[in-house]
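Quick question: what would this complex look like in 3D?
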Amino acid sequence: MLLVALPTLGFGQKKVEITFQTDGVCGMCEKRIEKALLDLDGVWTADWNQETHATFVVYNPKKVSEMDLYKAVAGVGHDTPKVKAKDEDYAKVHACCKYRDEEVNAAHHGG
Amino acid sequence: MKLPFLLLAGLAASKVAGQVDTTLYNSLQIEEVVVREEAAGLSVDSKSVTLNLNISRTELKKAACCNLSESFETNPSIDVSFTDAVTGTKQIQLFGLAGKYAQIQVEMTPLVRGLLANSGLSFIPGTWVQSIQLTKGIGAVNNGPESMTGQINVEILKPEDLVDAAESPGSEGRGDVLLNGYANQGGRFEFNEAYGLRLNDHWMVASLGHFSGRQQATDVNGDGFMDNPLGYQVNGMLRARYFGQNGWEGLYTFHALEDVKEGGQWAGSGAFPLGIETTDLWRSKMKQGRLAFTSKMGWVNPDHPDQSVGTILQLYSHTMNGFMGVDQPSNSPTDLQGIQNGLMAQFLFRQGWGNWAQTSALLFSRDLYSILLSAPSLSGLYDWGEQNVGLSTEWTWNPNPSFTGVFGARYDYNSVASHQFSPRMHLRWAPIEGHTLRVVAGRGFRNALPLTEEWGRFASNRQVRFAPNSIYSGWVWGGTTDSREIALNAGMSYSWNFIWNYMPGSLQMDAHSTQFGQTVVQDYYTPGQRYMYPQFGSLTGSTSPMSSNTLGAAMTYQLNKRTEMRLAYRFQDLRTIYRDETGVIAQNVTLPTPFVPKHRWMAHGSYEFKGGWTVDGTLQRYGEQPVPGMDPAGYPAVEMAPAFNLLSGQIRKAWTGGDVYLGVENGLNVMQANPIDGAVDPVTGAALLPTHPIFQTQFDATRIWGPIFGRMVYLGTNLVL
């Protein structure tokens, strides 16, 4: 799945790759998760995979910490391994993105 | 999937060569395509067999303004230029050849054809456009015979585009009403509207509206001529979409417009003495109208999605009423009354079997032309009909993901151009992932209307003549075999899609050659004269009286998550065999085609700030270009116009409910000195009346190679309700 095997070079910035799981269900979730990460200074690229829920992030640890990534994703309502979304943040996600709801999950995977 | 590959994968969904009906296929794959188009403004489809550039709405927003002819201004493959300094008509060039040699279509129905070859591009407002597909190199046979350099297909907003946007989760119901307003420093303003409505499970409707105009004249360079014509355009489209059961769908469109432009000398410019009336001045007027109804119906076999049929029926009426000169009978002005009524019907059938697919089409078209023209040196009324019956078939072989071959041919019986056989071939080979090689070759033809499609060239006191000294002495009005144009096109290209430093980029190189076996030459190389004559092998002793050979290279790279850049260069070598009419016997002489720079460069960059702000800028360089000279002593009078740079830029603030944009065109304030010859006294600089001897012998507004208007600031807004 990780197609990016190119060496981390260029522009004199240190870059670190990380992959972690983020809960979510659909394309809207993907946009929301990726936007939250990309809005952080120091995040070079971010990609969430709808099938595997793998979140691939390349970032500069001098500018942003690993924990900041989890916080940013949780801040828009999505659970990560180290930071869970607060209920009030989860409440803000669109009805079709309610990944904690079994019915919503089933609807996305069944289709 | 990794981010950069979304772009490629998404576009792979678009059909390889299924031209039964783009909307048909798009609707089957709409989710795949729509999501990805947001990702890139300008993208090359690596799976397509033709060299296709998709231009999305995101990209179109970067164009300063306003209609199709102007929407290519950030595109490295297409050049946009004025035909003359008074009518405001803009035309495009692909491979240095006029847009009329590309097949320009709206949803696979002809747009720039017949009377609309002159300014049809300005009849589609940019804000109506959903996307544009530009094909470099000859197009698919089933789309018609007229593709010679390439094909441009424009998809206009359909009812489902608007309705789906509003119904999609998270949109909060926004997206079914789009409003746009625009105004620029040159007095041009524009309003656009799009509205979509779902009636029931099967029917959706949409309305598209446009009103634009210019009421305030300017004369920045003080030559007594308006910099831009005044006028208005009222343009509307009503669309209905049907999605039935069992694979049926339909799209019905009604289009009506009126476009009026008036330019030329301006009594209020301050350049003329008091008491001068408009009827004493050289004026230009053009009023055009279009009424068209299009019905497209398609059926996809629900049990065998590889099997589909489609029909397209279009009925249209175009009118073109033009005037140029001094509005007094004694001054014998140029007057044009043109009507084109026509219909086209097409039936398409597509069937796939494993690695093979075929699409075949039967096309019938009929056009009735009536052109009444009176000009100082020629006049007449010409009525004729043009019928075309065409049968085409195209076979696609896709044995494995790395190879696609498309072999097609069409036979047309055209009442003007006679029997025409047009074979075409497209090959795509991607031996290594990310690297794609393409080869294209084929033949196309069209029928020229040399007087109407070059209407702006009447803005001159050059004497219009049909080559008096040639072996050929006919009159090329259009409607005869002498007015047909036939070309062979061949090309190859290499595309590389790469990822470097986690970011996507692409490199493209292409070489294309277009060789005309027959063409109608417009010859401006004899000072004071404009000759028009057909050129073909037996007259010139050459197999190619007109040719275009081009090499292009373009690179795009996303520098980081906020910055995108593009660099492009193109080399264009265009030659025409003219006839030297100055002697007793006409001699053939090969000269560079005017108004085509040999070298073109372009650099484009955009940056996205946090909080919805974006900036973009484009710098273009036009190399030296040949233009007709004015020295009365010499033939051929070929001069070189200097190279120049055009800078444009835009800043945009977007929010959920729309955006506001502020931009500048021609930021370096480059202007062609004396765009209109004979307009002012060379000694005193005073504007001349049409009766002045200098004006009478030298007036020429057609030697336009650069910008007429200087720096131009504009402001616009889009609202999504």
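Answer marked as accepted. The first helix of chain B runs from residue 3 to 12.
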